[in-house]
């Protein structure tokens, strides 16, 4: 099992446990775990509505690719520890990581 933590917009933390080899992105896990993120583009790194901040574990994650970095550059609140959840694959590199949801709350 892979264990990591999600901090929501209110600062509340919830541990997440995902089976190894599930082949999902962090965005897909967040949506399946009923976190309110838009993920408008469906995981193509085109909208930044799945913006997360890596509070712990950024050194173990694969580096962001150019498309992700370009999209993060458009965000006024992006920092060096910002990532797009759609571009992070859930695998053993996430073990022990802590992510804060940064994308705005959807307004339906």
Automatic annotation (TrEMBL):
Belongs to the adrenodoxin/putidaredoxin family. It comes from the Bacteria. GO terms for biological process: P450-containing electron transport chain. PANTHER family: FERREDOXIN-2, MITOCHONDRIAL, FERREDOXIN/ADRENODOXIN. The keyword Transmembrane helix does not apply. Its cofactor is [2Fe-2S] cluster. GO terms for molecular function: 2 iron, 2 sulfur cluster binding; electron transfer activity; metal ion binding. Keywords: 2Fe-2S, Iron, Iron-sulfur, Metal-binding. The lineage of its organism: Bacteria, Pseudomonadati, Bacteroidota, Cytophagia, Cytophagales. This is 2Fe-2S iron-sulfur cluster binding domain-containing protein. InterPro entries: 2Fe-2S_ferredoxin-like_sf, 2Fe-2S_ferredoxin-type, Adrenodoxin-like, Beta-grasp_dom_sf. Residues 1-105 form the 2Fe-2S ferredoxin-type domain. Gene3D superfamilies: 3.10.20.30.
């Amino acid at each position: 099992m892979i264990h990591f933590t999600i901090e929501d917009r209110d600062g509340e933390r919830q541990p997440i446990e995902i089976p190894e080899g599930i082949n999902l992105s962090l965005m897909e896990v967040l949506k399946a775990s009923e976190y309110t993120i838009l993920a408008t583009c469906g995981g193509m790194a085109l909208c930044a509505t799945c913006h997360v901040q890596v509070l712990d574990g950024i050194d173990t994650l694969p580096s962001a690719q150019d498309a992700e970095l370009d999209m993060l550059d458009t965000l006024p609140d992006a920092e060096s520890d910002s990532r797009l959840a759609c571009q992070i694959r859930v695998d053993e590199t996430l073990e022990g990581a802590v992510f804060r949801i940064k994308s705005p709350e959807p307004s339906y």
